Amino acid sequence: MDAAAGALAVKAYDDGSKVVGFFQKKNDFVKDLEENYHKLKSELGKLQARRDDIEAEFNRDKRMQATRECQDWILRVKEMEKHVSKLEEKYNSKGKPSWKPTSWTSRSKLSERMAKKSEEVHSLWMDGIFERGIVVTKSVKPVEKMGAPKIEDKQSLQGAFQNTLNYLKRDKITRIGIWGALGIGKTAIMENLNDNEEMAKMFDKIIWVTVSKHPSTEKLQEAIIRRLELSVEGTSSTTEEKAQRISKELEGKKCLILLDEVCQKIDLHEVMGFRSLQKDSKVVLASRSRGICYDMDADELIKVENLSYDDAWNMFQETVGDALSSPSIKRIAELVANECGGLPLLIDRVARTFKKNGKNEVLWDLGLRRLQRWDSIKVEGIQEVLEFLKLCYHDLDEIKKGCFLYSALYPEECEICVDYLMECWRAEGFMDYRYEIKDARGEGHEILKELTDLSLLERTNRIKFVKMNKVLRKMALKLSSQRNDFKLLVKPREGLNDFPKREEWEQATRISLMDNQLQTLPDTLDCCNLLTLLLQRNMFLMTIPESFFASMQSLRVLDLHATAIESLPSSLSNSIHLRGLYLNSCNHLRKFQFNIEALVKLEALDIRGTQISLLEIGSLRQVRCLQMSLSNFGMENPIEGEISNFNSLEELSIEVCSSKLWWDKIVDSVKKEVAAWEKLTSLRFCFPEVDCLELFVSTSPVWKKNSCMTFQFANGHPDSTCPQILESFCYQSNYSLKLVDVNGVNPRMLKQLMVTYAFGLINHRGVSRLSDFGVQNMNRIFVCLIEGCNEMETIINGEGITQGVLKCLEHLCINNIPNLKSIWQGPVYAGSLALLKNLTLSRCPELKKIFSNGMIKQLPQLQHLRVEECGQIEEIIMESENKGLEANALPSLKTLVLLNLPELTSIIWIDDSLEWPSLQRIKVSTCDKLKRLPFNNANATKLRFIEGQESWWGKLIWKDETVKQRLQSLCIFN
């Protein structure tokens, strides 16, 4: 028992000693708390100093970077700093080190952790001694491949890609802007530039940056720093220092900077630290807005067009695959592809959706019908694209949104006259109608430019017209359906014989039923909120019910042109807010049955081609824009003096397409009345004699004080068969002069010529060359048409000329000049024809040479050349006139059309001597002696189409069969 008690005593003593030791150790930690804290801070300071020294060493040389071992050590130091910081926070949370704790245990634990952490920090400091060094040569990939999609089989994308490559090879071009609609394929082009092997050889570095919708300098810098794998540890985080760091990194290197999805201007100096690009470096930016490309000082702009039908169909087939082996499904699939409007993004999404239908024809047909109505129902695959396309719309202000939605009233891909559209916009109130019409048109062009710059509307081949892509139009219709103030009933070109049902139109604010077969209208249309009613070109519509307009007090725009109506009903008097009334080409319209004086706000009236007399509209003194025909003056008893009632007119157009004698009877009085108007800003008028024109110019107060007055003057007696080429161009045709069937050069005409932009010389006599009018008088001419001038032998005689001639001319059309020998005779002074883009030569049987000696060197901008029915042309570019011609001649030529040239043997005397860097299309027809084409395997790299007869192609002679094989795939035989 004593032994047991002794054992227990010994155990108790041991346990007690352990306890005492434990508490003694804890007490020591408590006493050493402040010492451990300062020791930890000291060890951390040593560690940070070594880290800073190491970073300074590898940052000193931009060609070097930290070793992987060193980078890992720096990351460990970062983690250690975090741990120490937390301990320091705990230490300081209770006050200064002198604090008296309420918890002895917590002080002990904190002190112990600090002591252990000091050892760890010291150990990490020891690890910072790198026997193998801390830096290695930096290795950054010249390019990071993105796996670009294939675009070789998509003409619009491949063409834009090739254009960009060609521009990048030109020394003077440093910034290129690629623009086009959302989903059009800009990113695919940029990715192909990034991955292109030729680009990798041209540049030391290719830097890709996707710009967010709301970019900041910091975000852009971070993206570039990541791409260049720069370390910014230990340096200032200011944008200025980061910019300088990026600039130094790129110094002396050839860089290609690709900026995708640019939504606003980016200051490259602020981001990258240089005001101008480094030598041999270039920037390519992709944006949905042409304006942003301008803001970014792009040297060249490239618009990405919608895919052609063939390219769109090929892309659709490639995605869908085997299901199209069924002929019945293929027929439906072609209609599906066409609904996508040539937008690659939409084609891809729709094709993937329809691929799920397999070979089930019922599902394909159902899907097509839904797709055709996706503006009113949800369709799988469309919603994502719709939200994407909406981005452009939502960036617009409310006025521009209204103008965009209004444009959806017209059929898809329909050409809309710009002047007419702007009149409708103004009538609707999208532009301030208190301003003069000319100012409103200027405002309208600003709106139109933004819409076209964003590809929400597109310019057509006829520059005075625009159109809306079918996909964007459906988007506009869907968006309008979601707005209470923009309810549309839109059914143009649907073959309607009957007016739509009440539930379709009763809530509408705008109705478009143009281009149908309507024969009758409802007795009344209870639409008190209706603002626009478009019924034009319903050719079988003969009568309008008497009460039809009874409730349309708010109506602003009414278009009935090209209908068969004979009168307008009395109820139209209720439309007291009507501002635009279009009745042109209503050939049977003789009278108004309504009180026209009630239309107190009517501003724009078009009665061309009607039988309405001026007497009918004489009380409309507030009208500002009047378009009329000679017939409106009265067929049997011409009315003189009635036009004087319209002295508030700002724009007047009188079409003369009838009897010369009839117009001669009244022209003097009309001219005198018009000349007295003081508000006139635009006039389209025919002056039979030069004296008549001169008298108007000398007496018109507006003309004297306002040199900006737009005019379309004809001198002589043009009729409806006169060419309309002068009117197919944009603003410049608003300053046009057309001389028809006139003799010689009247000195009094030359002053008018000096302010003319569009000049037409038709059936003129007594001149042998255009330069007889004085080259100094033609410095502003933008477009020139010469037709039927039998005595003309050359266009310009360069003898004695000491200045550039026709320096602003962009379009030259020469037609039916039987004695024309040459375009240019004598020396060609530098700067002459420097802006010429389009040259058309037709029916000139004596013409033998097109490009006289030295002329071709002055045509760097020529894009389109058409030569037709010129029986003596043997060579397009003659050896005798073009010796020493450089290989890069005609660098901008895109299309070459050669028709019915029986003696043509060659395009150029040395078949493949030119590079043809921009040529995309060549068309040849009835040129049986042309046996060679001027192409090899290296030139004309952008050529995409060769049109001609298959029999002609089969007779061509080739130096190299591989050239024929290359070009064969481009052929379109007719």
Please, could you describe this protein's structure?
- This protein has 974 residues and is an alpha/beta fold.
- It is 35% helix and 15% strand.
- The chain is built from 28 helices and 36 strands.
- It has a 20-stranded parallel β-sheet. The protein has a five-stranded parallel β-sheet with strand order 4-5-6-3-7.
- Helix 2 packs parallel to helix 4 (104-127), helix 5 (155-168) packs across helix 6 and helix 12 (309-320) crosses helix 13 (327-338).
- The chain starts with a helix and ends with a strand.
- 39% of the residues are buried.
- Mean pLDDT is 85; it is low at 95-99.
Oligomer type:
single chain
How is the biggest beta sheet arranged? 20 strands, parallel
**What is the average per-residue confidence, as pLDDT, rounded to a whole number?**
85
Secondary-structure-based class equals: alpha/beta
SS element count, helices? 28
Q: How much is the radius of gyration in Å?
A: 39 Å
- Considering DSSP H and I runs of 4 or more, what fraction of the residues is helical? 25-40%
Output the keywords.
globular, 974 residues, 36 strands, single chain, alpha/beta
